[in-house]
Amino acid sequence: SYSGRFAARLTGADGDDTLLGFLDHGEMVGIATVLADKAAPTGVVAMANGAQTLHISKAQFVDVLTRYPDAAIKVAALMSARLMELFRFVEMTSNRSLSERVAFAVSRLAVRHGERRSDGSRYMRITQSDIAKAAGASRQRVHIELKRLQARGQIVLGYGTIVVKARHISETG
Fold first, then answer.
1. pLDDT (tens digit per residue) in 124-158
2. φ and ψ at residue 131, rounded to 5 degrees
């Protein structure tokens, strides 16, 4: 659990980071690492000063799961959802064109972190550098792709913001 703004990142073999997303207030992280006793190639990075996390030992966590079966089921459901997200992420980022990767990254981040508006669109405070990290490409190339998406009416770019039009959001993103 935490307070403040954090980004979840996947570190590749080449040392480059891929933005997986941002954490919602109170979201649990590191569950798989703790339960499996294995290091993961992911990290959580504070996006601002004063960000805080709450650390719970493995023994305390297992004790909660043992004593409260409903909590264990919720953790299993959370892990299942994250696994499905991972499968979709791998499928959409492996052997895909830059255009497809950028569109997927924008949609995925909009679903998970965008503020839903009355017209069904999603508003995000996000930089083009963040989108580039999520798509695994340079900011300059992603900028070109974002301009193409805007020209096609799929998104509206602002300074540090993106609005994704409702008909271009995949809820399974």
1. 999 999 999 888 889 999 999 999 999 999 999 99
2. -60, -40
